[in-house]
Specification:
Number of helices: 0
CATH class: Mainly Beta
Shape: globular
CATH topology: Jelly Rolls
CATH architecture: Sandwich
Distance between the termini: 6 Å
Largest sheet: 5 strands, antiparallel
Length: 116
């Protein structure tokens, strides 16, 4: 199966408004391109006192419904390692987001990788 990187952000500043990593903006998305996805985040600009929330959202079924959180992680303080989500099967209207909940706005690099 081919591996691709359909979405990425490079040096995008994240604040208290939820940012879609898919679009690189605060306009949240509902992507219906199915596949097995994994999010990689370089949070190396974070410092003591910073806190950011990563969310992966998806609709349970494809004929409506509401996006709900299927995976969530909180990054706090200094981050010296790359953060990686588990691989998730996404299909019905998904998005991956990043939001600051404490500290200062920071620039992030992120990559959404697709296996199938």
């Amino acid at each position: 199966m081919p591996i691709s990187e359909p979405y990425e952000i490079d040096g995008v500043t994240v604040g208290t408004t939820e940012l879609s990593i898919v679009s690189g903006t605060t306009t949240l998305q509902s992507i219906a391109d199915d596949g097995v996805y994994q999010l990689w985040v370089d949070a190396g600009n974070m410092v003591k006192g910073d806190e950011y929330v990563i969310k992966v959202k998806e609709k349970v079924e494809g004929t409506g419904g509401t996006q709900k959180v299927v995976f969530q992680a909180v990054l706090t303080d200094v981050q010296s390692e790359v953060f990686v989500t588990p691989m998730l099967i996404l299909i019905n209207g998904w998005d991956m987001t990043l939001t600051r909940t404490a500290g200062a706005d920071r620039a992030f690099d992120a990559s959404i990788r697709k296996v199938a």
